[in-house]
Specification:
Structural class: alpha/beta
Distance between the termini: 59 Å
Helix content: 40-55%
Shape: globular
Number of helices: 27
Oligomer: single chain
């Protein structure tokens, strides 16, 4: 029996892997070198005796140098931009994408700026976001705007997503935002390339005949990559079901084109049986599928993921026509090699990582999985085998991408089984009807038939979405929050997969005869021991740190909001507020706070404290309650309003997390004589401004005040605290209300007597926090001030209650 694809690895495959690992070297040097050594051990274990260490090292070095040579350089923001000066600017649209929830995102090139003092041309591109646009923009249009430009900037927390470098790799260093029909916006129509103009006309006709429901919106997204009309709720539902990947045009959709080519080849064989004597069915299918793939590439706006998938399909087609014996594995490596040779920085593109690892998982594991699947006789047996085959494809792909998805998203969907239902309906009903209707729509004689076919396809998709909503109410499980693995754990997982692949080299049912001579009875033991070491080592380090950590307070960089993390001597963690943004599209809990809390640690909190219900403190909390194991939620009795309240109550109800109202005098014990004391408000306290009802918390270790976290209290709340006579002294003061002028009180600062002050406020925030008056008062009192918007995450550590705090900025901003 033929062995699985694992046995088909060749030395040049490993050399290419070494070059790819080298590309990661400048950013992750130690991890890349360790991965290179592991790749060498795995290749020797796979029996690649012709592999040589020197060429492998040279490939690794070449990748390292290529990445370093093409790394994007930081573009400084001009002074007028840092002063938040309002300017007139214009630029040509070089690329535009539609996003769910009626949003457009365009890249503006050759951006010129006009100010009172003169004009200038920006040295980099601008990413312009337009929510609820009054019209569409196209490639080639010139956009004139009046507003504020800002530099693209990260949230500087260790382990946080690197948005800044992501945009710099595309030549983008600045950003702008517009909502609705802005008076300062004017669009000058440019000359669009004729292919894009033809596509826009087809899209206009498509929009005119599609029903105004989510089925029609999803169909438009699948046919032309336009997700403009897809609701955010629909995207959340698909993500929860583990089906969001079907909405991003990629290799999956080109696979449908290949399937259509196979169907056409089958039909040609039925009409002319002799054709397969000259052109075997697989080769004829490839010849027919390639033009369809090119058309789909044009319809889908040639997005990077679609272009890469088309390149991979082309390479696979060439290998198939040349009768290669390792089509999938060789095709993947050749395609990835060509992509990275053209753009070494593409190695950091998440879409490329996921697609390459998914195909690698399929190439390595699908064959052995299918060999071991039973094949029941009869029609129902074939249907069952087909469904199991789809699940096997999904499982093999997910085996490849699991560490990357866990590292990037911090959650895993348990609803993998839905792919066996969704993908066949998509490939056999919705998409064939949609493509047939789209092909007929431009022809006047049959355009009516095309519209009916498109309507039928939209109806199928709407029925599928309705079924998904029903399953969501009764069956679907919520995505599970997971630890975001560190590089040793990722290497341990990769080694475990290599061991699994090696164990599948022998066909099912083969015995000792299939074992290599001299392999021994347990050749996997050293590898398994190394897997355990790599996976356990980070946890052992964390356990050692927990025993010797002392107490930590981290003020996270969450923009114009606030989130603080208290870590006790034994590693217990309490979150005080979770940040939040005005836009409901960006969840600070999911995108900022969650990644920091799960960086090498499980999603567990002893408690989450909500100081008050303002959205810049509360909007990130529902996600964390939903995905983390939270011991309890403490708050001052005031709940957020509107949709924020509904989201939080749903999360609390689903997880069963207890809640407790806290007032002055309550104490939360964190172990080892560490406690979080509530100093304000007293029961029944009334205030004109809800901010003055913020919980004021004092962190105390063996009687010594370490930190005071006063939420958003203003002068009224501060006076109430001073009148109460409570001990406010603390080494560290988190400035009340982000350092606003309304919370400035020298008497309050004197009562706290901090060694240093921390302030959570956004970079170039519209309020100018912390205000100059606050900075001046602290400077006159010789209290150093550190701001998250200027330095990123701020950390204070106490190794002993009798020692001064150690101040660190591990997420230091440039």
């Amino acid at each position: 029996m033929q062995r699985s694809s694992v046995a088909a690895w060749l030395p040049w495959h490993v050399y290419l892997v070494a070059a790819v690992l080298g590309l990661f070297g400048p950013q992750y040097p130690f991890a890349a070198c360790a991965a290179l050594g592991l790749a060498w051990l795995c290749s020797r274990g796979l029996g690649l005796r012709r592999l040589r260490a020197l060429p492998m090292a040279l490939c690794f070095a070449a990748g390292w140098l290529a990445c370093a040579a093409t790394a994007p350089s930081i573009v400084d923001a001009p002074e007028w931009m840092l002063r938040r000066e309002k300017v007139e600017f214009s630029g040509r649209v070089g690329h535009v994408e539609s996003r769910p929830g009626r949003r457009l995102q365009a890249i503006l090139e050759d951006v010129g700026v006009r100010r009172k003092s003169g004009g200038e041309t920006l040295p980099a591109k601008v990413v312009w976001t337009w929510d609820a646009p009054s019209e569409r923009v196209r490639v080639g249009d010139v956009v004139h705007l009046t507003g504020r430009l800002k530099p693209v900037r990260n949230f500087y927390n260790p382990g946080a997503p690197d948005f800044e470098t992501y945009w710099l790799r595309q030549g983008v260093a600045y950003r702008a935002y517009v909502w609705g029909a802005d008076k300062g916006l004017r669009i000058e129509r440019g000359r669009e390339p004729w292919l894009l103009r033809l596509r826009d006309r087809l899209q206009t006709k498509l929009e005119a005949v599609l029903p105004d429901n989510q089925g029609g919106a999803v169909l438009q997204a699948l046919l032309m990559g336009d997700r403009f009309r897809v609701d955010l709720q629909t995207m959340d539902l698909l993500r929860k079901a583990g089906l969001a990947h079907t909405m991003a045009l990629s290799g999956l959709h080109l696979g449908y084109m290949a399937g259509l080519g196979l169907a056409l080849a089958f039909l040609a064989g039925r009409l002319r049986p002799g054709i397969h004597l000259k052109a075997p069915r697989p080769k004829l299918a490839v010849v027919l599928a390639l033009p369809l793939a090119l058309v789909y590439l044009w319809l889908g706006q040639a997005t990077p993921s679609l272009v890469r998938a088309a390149l991979m399909l082309t390479v696979l087609a060439v290998l198939l026509l040349r009768d290669s014996s390792r089509i999938l594995l060789d095709g993947l490596f050749i395609a990835v090699g060509l992509m990275l040779a053209a753009d070494p920085q593409a190695v950091f593109d998440l879409r490329l990582q996921l697609s390459a690892l998914a195909v690698l998982g399929v190439a390595v594991f699908l064959g052995p999985m299918l060999e071991r699947l039973p094949r029941p006789p009869g029609l129902w047996g074939k249907i069952l085998f087909a469904a199991c085959s789809i699940l096997a494809v999904s499982l093999a792909a997910n085996l490849g991408v699991l560490p990357v998805t866990a590292k990037t998203f911090g959650e895993v969907s348990p609803n993998l089984w839905l792919n066996a239902l969704w993908l066949p309906l998509l490939g056999t009903a919705a998409l064939p009807l949609g493509f047939a209707g789209l092909a007929l729509l431009p022809c006047p004689v049959v355009s009516g038939l095309g519209a009916r076919l498109l309507g039928a396809s939209a109806w199928v998709l709407q029925w599928m979405l309705d079924g998904l909503s029903w399953l969501d109410r009764f069956v679907l499980a919520e995505p599970a929050g997971v630890l975001r693995p560190q590089w040793p754990e990722i290497l341990g997982y990769a080694l475990a997969l290599a061991l699994l692949a090696a164990s599948l080299r022998r066909p099912a049912g083969s015995g000792a005869a299939g074992r290599r001579p001299g392999s021994g009875e347990r050749p996997w033991l050293p590898g398994a021991a190394l897997v355990l070491l790599l996976i356990a080592a980070p946890h052992a380090v964390q356990a050692y740190k927990a025993l010797h950590r002392g107490v930590e307070l981290e003020l996270l960089d969450v923009g114009q909001g606030q989130a603080a993390v208290i870590v006790g001597p034994m590693g217990t963690r309490v979150l005080v507020d979770a940040g939040g943004f005005y836009s409901d599209r960006f969840d600070s809990g999911e995108a900022v706070v969650g990644p920091r809390l799960t960086q090498g640690l499980p999603p567990v909190l002893q408690a989450a404290v909500l100081s008050h219900p303002d959205m810049d403190h509360s909007r990130g909390l529902p996600y964390l309650v939903d995905r983390f194991r939270v011991g309890c939620v403490l708050f001052n009795g005031d709940w957020p309003g509107g949709e924020d309240r509904l989201r939080l109550e749903r999360a609390l109800h689903r997880t069963g997390t207890p809640i407790q109202v806290v007032s002055a005098g309550c104490v939360l014990s964190l172990g080892d004589d560490l406690a979080l004391e509530a100093l304000h408000p007293v029961l029944g306290f009334k205030a004109k401004d809800d901010n003055d009802r913020s919980l004021v918390l004092r962190l105390v270790w063996k009687g010594r005040g370490l930190a005071l976290i006063p939420g958003d209290i203003g002068r009224h709340g501060e006076r109430e605290l001073l009148r109460s006579g409570r001990d406010l002294r603390a080494d560290v003061l988190v400035l009340p209300h982000h350092g606003s002028k309304g919370a400035l009180s020298r008497e309050f600062y004197q009562a706290v007597s901090p060694r240093l002050a921390l302030c959570s406020s956004g970079f170039l925030n519209q309020f100018g926090f912390p205000r100059p008056e606050v900075r001046k008062a602290l400077a006159e009192m010789n209290i150093p001030l550190y701001v998250t918007g200027e330095r990123g995450l701020l950390r204070c550590r106490w190794t002993d209650p009798d020692r001064e705090p150690i101040f660190e900025t591990p997420g230091t901003a440039p």
